[in-house]
């Protein structure tokens, strides 16, 4: 069934919407290295769709001959870009060819144009320059289309929810309400343990049990072994916190094994010896191992993790005194690597 002008225009609009959706998805998924190639590809897709739709409308309006000629020029342009193909063809054209072409044209009621002298022939070879100008116009049009597509993508991104800004606004309000100031922790797999270590050191809570700390300190009766230890830099504090968490997990396997998808022994080894990220299980282990209450300020709420009654409670307050409380900030959207913990110190 032959299409009407309305159905052709409706189909064209749908094709344009579908293409714009594809372009938006491509640009969202583009990385810094692939953005230029994606932009070029999107501009080429838009150009092809636009030219095809123009040809279809021209055919419908009875302008098929003109479109076919333009299409031939475009095809020639693609084949001859970067070459002098057009100039070569014009140079190979003889006067007899021009005369023959003139005699075979249908009568138009006008006398045939006289053959140009050689000087005018050279001027007629200027279409090669015009071809290069058309190429520049295509490049300029393509650049304008790319700019318009980039602006459309930015406008679409501006309409999306800014989770990072919302999260930061809530956290800052909670920091102010509780008299806290944020201590930035390096964003890596150790951030939770480094933030806990910073909080414990602020409250002068030993990172390792007292007997282990004494064993690792130099002895007054044997000063000779202490000299090599002083030459080596101390391990980072988060290492001690990781060890303390895994020691508690191994001592209380029933509290953690049911929540794991792998054997407890292999999980403990990863937490203790690698840069594996810590989470809820590690916070629970640390609250019990150090006997502290952990407050985690995050977007929308503040979570409290308290030691269980069966925990070691190594730093439980004396009778009638509250437990020590440490504060952490949890980010889900604020850092490029994903989830992150910072330490929250008291002001002053």
Sheet with the most strands: spatial strand order: 1-5-4-2-3
H and E string: HHHHHHHHEHHHHHHEEEE
Arithmetic mean pLDDT: 77
Instruction: Give the terminus-to-terminus CA distance.
Output: 81 Å
Can you tell me the number of structural domains?
A: 2
CATH topology of the largest domain: Cathepsin B, Chain A
CATH classification, class level of the largest domain = Alpha Beta
What portion of residues belong to β-strands?
5-15%
CA gyration radius, whole angstroms = 38 Å
Please provide the count of β strands.
Answer: 5
Query: What's the helix count?
Result: 14
Largest sheet: 5 strands, mixed
In CATH, the architecture of the largest domain is Alpha-Beta Complex
Helices and strands: which structural class? alpha+beta
Fraction of residues in helices? 55-70%
């Amino acid at each position: 069934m032959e299409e009407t002008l309305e159905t052709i225009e409706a189909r064209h609009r749908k094709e344009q919407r579908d293409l714009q959706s594809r372009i938006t998805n491509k640009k969202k998924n583009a990385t810094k290295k692939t953005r230029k190639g994606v932009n070029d590809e999107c501009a080429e897709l838009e150009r092809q769709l636009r030219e095809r739709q123009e040809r279809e409308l021209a055919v419908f309006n009875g302008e098929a001959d003109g479109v076919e000629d333009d299409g031939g020029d475009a095809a020639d342009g693609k084949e001859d870009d970067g070459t002098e193909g057009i100039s070569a063809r014009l140079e190979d054209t003889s006067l007899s060819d021009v005369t023959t072409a003139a005699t075979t044209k249908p009568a138009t009621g006008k006398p045939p144009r006289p053959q140009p002298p050689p000087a005018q022939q050279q001027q007629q070879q200027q279409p090669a320059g015009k071809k290069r100008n058309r190429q520049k116009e295509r490049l300029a049009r393509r650049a304008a289309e790319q700019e318009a597509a980039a602006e459309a993508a930015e406008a679409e991104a501006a309409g999306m929810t800014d989770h990072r800004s919302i999260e930061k606004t809530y956290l800052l309000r909670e920091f102010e309400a509780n008299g806290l100031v944020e201590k930035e922790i390096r964003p890596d797999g150790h951030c939770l343990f480094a933030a806990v270590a910073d909080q414990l050191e602020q409250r002068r809570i030993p990172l390792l049990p007292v007997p282990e700390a004494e064993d690792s300190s130099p002895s007054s009766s044997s000063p000779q072994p202490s000299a090599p230890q002083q030459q080596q830099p101390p391990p980072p504090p988060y290492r001690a916190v990781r060890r303390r968490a895994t020691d508690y997990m191994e001592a209380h396997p029933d509290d953690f094994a049911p929540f794991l998808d792998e054997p407890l022994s292999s999980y403990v080894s990863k937490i203790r010896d690698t840069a594996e990220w810590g989470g809820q299980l590690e916070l629970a282990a640390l609250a019990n191992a150090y006997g502290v209450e952990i407050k985690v300020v995050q977007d929308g709420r503040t979570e409290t993790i308290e030691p269980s009654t069966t925990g070691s409670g190594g730093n439980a307050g004396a009778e009638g005194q509250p437990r020590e409380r440490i504060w952490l900030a949890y980010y889900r959207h604020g850092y490029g690597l994903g989830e992150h913990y910072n330490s929250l110190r008291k002001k002053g």
